[in-house]
């Protein structure tokens, strides 16, 4: 393995035990999805029962992914998570394309999207400044309007810069932020469920009755009801995105072979329960026809509309503050974990050599954090939220399926390797997850062709820097 200067002299600090790892995992996942995605899912399905089914199916599929890929996570505990896994399974070239995709869209776009929702929530309470219409209509390439809604974008960038500054100084600082925020978020979501059901104005008929236009025209398409359900699950999967993030910091987890599998399994069960309870509450309070109408207003967050209906202005303030806290925590956790991918890539010579350096005082991958910060801030100024999240979920499931298939590969390739955790239900559960990932990718090509093509194009674009680094460092696709 090619070693860059200063990459091997210091080690990262093992700072995360099981409670901290669970908290980091939960905070990596609970972000904007639990507040926003019920509305577009309602538009796709127009049935409360089908919406809740889509949430449950997405949770079950995610759990199957966790139960499958944790076998690899318990064997390979280096920083970089899937990047380290793919090196062992398919070699460094395939691992590079995963890392490139994470940098170009999956992780960086997640940071940009979540921080943008944070700034939007602040804007709901305190209106942020905007430029005049002439400035806001200015475009780049006739596609992007970087100066539109500038106050929100500047605040989103400020959040990213602030959180990177915290994590630059050490994982203890970033982990402490995640602990405090996660406790507040889980308690507040439980309060929403309690208030919405026990003291709200909802009724069970809202959960039982479909929309006036049910079934939607999309049910008569070439895939029937399967296509819309997969489209709705694509939205739900954004709310579950981040379930592999704990593996990114394997070098900083205490007893990783035991801690990582437990943190993943316990954490995902907690999140499934939270999501089903919260989305049931939304649909209990707001009839499905109103939820469909909310989906057609791009500036409305479903959870804000629910709480405003229940409690008026105080409800608006409460949910806006909660979204601010939640997105703050999720942005922080994603920043903390994702930079370790580029740190690991750089140690192999498949990224800028500067990203491989560990800060001499703080013992963090400081340069990798800064590079991620610059690109994430750039992405803040482009893309719509739902389009961006659908695209990155499509790209993610290509790699999720590849990791799951890797369980079969490593069983043949490394039959005698120590496996502290063995995939549950092998070979049936891993095979089902691989088949689902394949089905999701294929269905998305029909249901969301633009997002699918953008995702594939961004992955392919990584060939250009790959050729540069291979020429510069004389790299080969060795293990």
Topology:
Blueprint: H1 18-29, H2 33-36, H3 38-45, H4 48-75, H5 82-89, H6 92-125, H7 133-136, H8 150-168, H9 171-198, H10 204-208, H11 226-240, H12 256-285, H13 288-295, H14 302-347, H15 366-380, H16 385-413, H17 428-447, H18 449-461, H19 463-473
Helix pairs in contact: 1-9, 1-12, 1-14, 3-4, 3-11, 3-13, 4-11, 4-12, 4-16, 4-17, 5-6, 5-16, 6-8, 6-14, 6-15, 6-16, 6-18, 8-9, 8-14, 8-15, 9-12, 9-14, 11-16, 11-17, 14-15, 16-17, 16-18, 17-18
Structure description:
The chain is globular, with a radius of gyration of 22 Å. The chain has helices at 18-29, 33-36, 38-45, 48-75, 82-89, 92-125, 133-136, 150-168, 171-198, 204-208, 226-240, 256-285, 288-295, 302-347, 366-380, 385-413, 428-447, 449-461, 463-473. The protein has 479 residues and is mainly α. α8 crosses α14 (302-347). The protein is 70% helix and 0% strand.
Describe this protein with a few key phrases:
479 residues; Amino acid/polyamine transporter I; 19 helices; disordered N terminus
Number of domain units:
1
CATH class: Mainly Alpha
Structural class: mainly alpha
- Proportion of residues in helical segments: over 70%
CATH fold title: Amino acid/polyamine transporter I
Separation of the first and last Cα atoms: 8 Å
Largest sheet: none
CATH superfamily: Amino acid/polyamine transporter I
Q: pLDDT average, as an integer?
A: 82
Basic shape: globular
Number of E-type strands:
0
- What is the N-to-C succession of helices and strands? HHHHHHHHHHHHHHHHHHH
State Rg: 22 Å
Low-confidence stretches: 1-9
What amount of the residues lies in strands? under 5%
CATH architecture: Up-down Bundle
Number of helical elements = 19
């Amino acid at each position: 393995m090619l070693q860059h200067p200063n990459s091997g002299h210091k080690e990262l600090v093992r700072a995360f035990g099981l409670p901290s790892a669970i908290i980091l995992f939960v905070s990596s996942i609970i972000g904007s999805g639990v507040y926003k995605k019920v509305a577009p899912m309602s538009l796709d399905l127009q049935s409360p029962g089908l919406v809740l089914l889509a949430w449950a199916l997405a949770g079950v599929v995610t759990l199957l992914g966790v139960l499958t890929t944790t076998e690899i996570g318990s064997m390979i505990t280096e920083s970089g998570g899937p990047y380290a896994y793919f090196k062992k399974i398919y070699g460094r070239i395939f691992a590079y394309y995963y890392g490139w995709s994470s940098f170009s869209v999956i992780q960086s776009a997640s940071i940009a999207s979540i921080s943008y929702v944070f700034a939007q929530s602040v804007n709901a309470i305190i209106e942020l400044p905007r430029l005049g219409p002439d400035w806001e209509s200015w475009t780049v390439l006739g596609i992007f309007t970087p100066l539109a809604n500038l106050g929100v974008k500047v605040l989103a960038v400020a959040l990213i810069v602030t959180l990177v500054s915290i994590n630059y100084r050490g994982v203890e600082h970033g982990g402490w932020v995640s602990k405090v925020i996660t406790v507040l978020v889980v308690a507040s979501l439980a309060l929403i469920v309690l208030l919405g059901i026990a003291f709200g104005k909802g009724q069970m008929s809202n959960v039982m009755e479909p929309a006036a236009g049910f079934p939607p025209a999309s049910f008569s398409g070439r895939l029937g009801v399967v296509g819309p359900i997969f489209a709705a699950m694509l939205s739900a999967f954004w709310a579950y995105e981040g379930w592999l993030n704990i593996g990114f910091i394997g070098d900083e987890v205490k007893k990783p072979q035991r801690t990582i599998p437990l943190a993943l399994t316990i954490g995902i069960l907690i999140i499934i329960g939270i999501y089903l309870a919260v989305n049931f509450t939304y649909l209990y309070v707001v009839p499905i026809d109103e939820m469909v109408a909310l989906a057609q207003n791009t500036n409305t967050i479903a959870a804000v509309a629910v709480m405003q209906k229940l409690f008026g202005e105080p409800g608006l303030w409460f949910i806006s503050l909660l979204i601010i806290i939640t997105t703050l925590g999720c942005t922080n956790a994603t920043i903390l974990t994702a930079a370790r991918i580029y740190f690991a890539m750089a140690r192999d010579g498949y990224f800028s050599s500067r990203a491989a350096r560990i800060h001499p005082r703080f013992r963090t991958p400081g340069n990798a954090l800064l590079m991620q910060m610059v690109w994430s801030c750039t992405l803040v100024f482009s893309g719509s939220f739902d389009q961006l999240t659908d695209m990155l979920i499509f790209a993610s499931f290509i790699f999720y399926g590849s990791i799951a298939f890797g369980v079969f590969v490593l069983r043949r390739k490394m039959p005698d390797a120590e496996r502290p955790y063995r995939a549950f239900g092998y070979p049936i559960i891993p095979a089902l997850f691989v088949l689902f990932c394949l089905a999701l990718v294929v269905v998305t090509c029909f249901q969301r062709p633009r997002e699918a093509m953008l995702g594939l194009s961004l992955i392919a674009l990584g060939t250009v820097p790959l050729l540069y680094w291979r020429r510069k460092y004389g790299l080969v696709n060795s293990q």
